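User: I've been trying to design a sequence by hand for this structure and keep getting stuck. Would you show me what you'd pick, starting by listing the structure so we're on the same page?

Assistant: Good idea, let's start from the same input. This is the structure you sent:
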């Protein structure tokens, strides 16, 4: 940038305009090329205000860049010079105009060469730095900087903070959130790297926390922050990497059409992995490079759908189905939308939600899951969806295990795959293995309410009721309004013979919309607590509800079992079998069924589940 070689010294820093290297004493401070240009442009202004427009032209003379790029460079400079984002110790912001370098230059600075020669090793830094400035061709990404002092270091864990929406339109937040999730999901495909889940990462959205604090809280080596910005019909992802001490490691920019959103996310993820020197297998590299174009509106509908699905309420799941179907209508080959649709239909007919009869919705879930793996055989979510259907509806445990293990191999960071793999082990009557898989899911997504509940569910099936209660209580501290959490906590109290607490928690679940699950649990608690009249009132109430909405036969069976009516309990268990209820695969360890377990008729039902063929 500068025609004449000049040395600028200020505070503890010194930079040579020809070598373009910034030093704090003898320590090299890593700078990206454009940040160097920004700093030199400010230094050469001799303390005068540099208008934003002039500064942009000086740093990006041959391309169009909006002010957001300049603001990021200024922010990066302030961090590397040791100040906060708004610290004017070195660079002053002139509102609506530009910036000014305000730190005094030391005597003799700006005139000729430094008084002392650089150490011999430092003379080679320009060549070392030049070797590190390698252009990234894939997907329009380009390499900007690698921290020289960490060239041989490998990092093992990271968190991607929610990308900031710089479009100026708050309605575009979903795009930034969706791109954040896509970058995280791509990084999770790398087995050697521990990546904090998007559920956890999103808890930092809008949080005013310094990066070292976030790194400590999540026990990670690297923090990734960045932004999403719109330029007409094109979008741009910008990411910056910092180590746990808030020192910059690298930054990159990924422009492209929104149709290329999947490629933008995978390119960013691949570059991040390369820059932190994480080891990737050839198959992992292939999966990161396999993104296809997608209709932008389809991708947006898919992002909305997953957001609704994660609510785990009947209303949320129905909303998710609507968005997934819209996505498929706009892009019939978009595999993630089929996976989402499969998961939504499956939950409607599964334990805990029970909004629809399994025979009504599970075939739709199965067809959607098959479409997902058809259009993208490498999509971990698709294999997870299919595995869940194989388990919960086909009752084909071998096929379910194969799908779950395939999903985990494709994306070792996908928490739902481990969560549903835990359900497989419950169906195999191995609650300890189920707990291990649920803990793996929890480690990958510690802030997911449903995964925390799944950990408790494995403890419950393992008859470790005290631990289950503690786990459910911990989950409810994170989400006090989570109806399912109150219902399963009540079930653990019930099996612990703590009936007043059980009845109270079932009441809380009802108040929060749990529906027939909590109502049936209340009837069961009444039966076990020696209040048969109240239990029968609940049976009557469930019968009236069943006239206009689905009430799983397994719920009725549990109340009769609690009342000691073995014949009716087995009769309604048989009805649950005929409904193709997913409760059937868990009968071998289900606590409410203990009073029926010695009856040959019950054992015959269990054996029939094991030998039943897919519908």
């Amino acid at each position: 940038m500068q025609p004449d070689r000049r040395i600028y010294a200020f505070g503890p820093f010194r930079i040579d305009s020809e070598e373009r290297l910034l030093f704090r004493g003898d320590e090299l401070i890593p700078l990206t090329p454009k940040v160097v240009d920004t700093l030199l442009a400010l230094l050469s202004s001799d303390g005068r205000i540099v208008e934003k427009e002039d500064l942009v032209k000086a740093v990006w003379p041959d391309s169009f860049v909006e002010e957001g790029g300049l603001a990021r460079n200024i922010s990066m400079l302030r961090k590397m010079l040791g100040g906060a984002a708004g610290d004017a110790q070195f660079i002053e912001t002139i509102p609506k105009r530009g910036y000014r370098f305000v730190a005094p230059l030391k005597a003799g600075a700006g005139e000729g060469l430094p008084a002392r020669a650089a150490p011999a090793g430092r003379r080679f830094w320009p060549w070392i730095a030049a070797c590190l400035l390698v252009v990234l061709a894939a997907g329009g990404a380009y390499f900007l900087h690698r921290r020289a002092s960490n060239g041989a270091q490998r990092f093992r864990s990271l968190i991607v903070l929610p990308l900031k929406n710089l479009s100026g339109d708050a309605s575009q937040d979903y795009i930034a959130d969706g791109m954040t999730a896509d970058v995280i999901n791509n990084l999770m495909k790398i087995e050697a790297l521990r990546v904090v889940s998007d559920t956890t990462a999103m808890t930092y959205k809008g949080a005013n926390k310094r990066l070292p604090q976030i790194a400590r809280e999540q026990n990670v080596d690297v923090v990734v922050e960045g932004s999403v910005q719109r330029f007409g019909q094109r979008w741009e992802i910008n990411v910056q990497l910092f180590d746990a001490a808030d020192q910059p490691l690298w930054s990159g920019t990924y422009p492209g059409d929104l149709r290329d959103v999947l490629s933008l996310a995978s390119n960013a993820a691949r570059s991040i992995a390369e820059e932190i020197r994480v080891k990737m297998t050839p198959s992992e590299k292939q999966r990161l490079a396999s993104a296809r174009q997608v209709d932008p509106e389809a991708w947006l509908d898919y992002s909305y759908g997953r957001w609704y699905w994660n609510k785990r309420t009947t209303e949320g799941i129905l909303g998710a189905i609507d968005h997934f179907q819209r996505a498929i209508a706009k892009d019939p080959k978009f595999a993630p939308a089929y996976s989402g649709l499969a998961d939504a239909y499956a939950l409607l007919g599964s334990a805990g939600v029970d909004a629809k009869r399994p025979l009504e919705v599970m075939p739709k879930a199965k067809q959607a899951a098959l479409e997902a793996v058809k259009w993208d055989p490498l999509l971990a979510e698709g294999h997870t969806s299919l595995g869940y259907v194989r388990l919960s509806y086909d009752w084909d445990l071998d096929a379910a295990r194969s799908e779950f293990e395939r999903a985990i191999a494709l994306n070792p960071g996908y928490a739902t795959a481990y969560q549903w793999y835990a359900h497989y082990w419950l169906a195999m009557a191995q609650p300890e293995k189920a707990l291990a898989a649920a803990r793996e899911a929890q480690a990958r997504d510690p802030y997911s309410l449903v995964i925390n509940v799944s950990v408790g569910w494995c403890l419950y099936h393992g008859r470790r009721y005290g631990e289950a209660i503690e786990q459910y209580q911990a989950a409810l501290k994170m989400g006090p309004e989570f109806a399912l959490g109150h219902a399963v906590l009540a079930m653990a109290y019930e099996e612990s013979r703590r009936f007043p607490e059980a009845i109270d928690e079932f009441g809380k679940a009802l108040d929060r919309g749990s529906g027939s699950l909590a109502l049936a649990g209340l009837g069961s608690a009444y039966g076990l607590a020696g209040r048969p009249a109240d239990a029968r009132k609940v049976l009557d109430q469930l019968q009236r509800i069943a006239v206009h909405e689905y009430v799983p036969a397994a719920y009725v069976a549990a109340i009769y079992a609690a009342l000691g009516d073995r014949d009716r309990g087995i009769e309604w268990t048989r009805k649950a079998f005929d409904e193709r209820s997913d409760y059937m695969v868990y009968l071998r360890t289900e606590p409410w069924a203990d009073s029926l377990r010695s009856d040959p008729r019950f054992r015959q039902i269990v054996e029939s589940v094991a030998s039943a063929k897919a519908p």
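That's my pick for every position. To get oriented when you compare it with your attempt: Confidence is low (pLDDT under 50) at residues 108-152. The longest helix spans residues 358-375.
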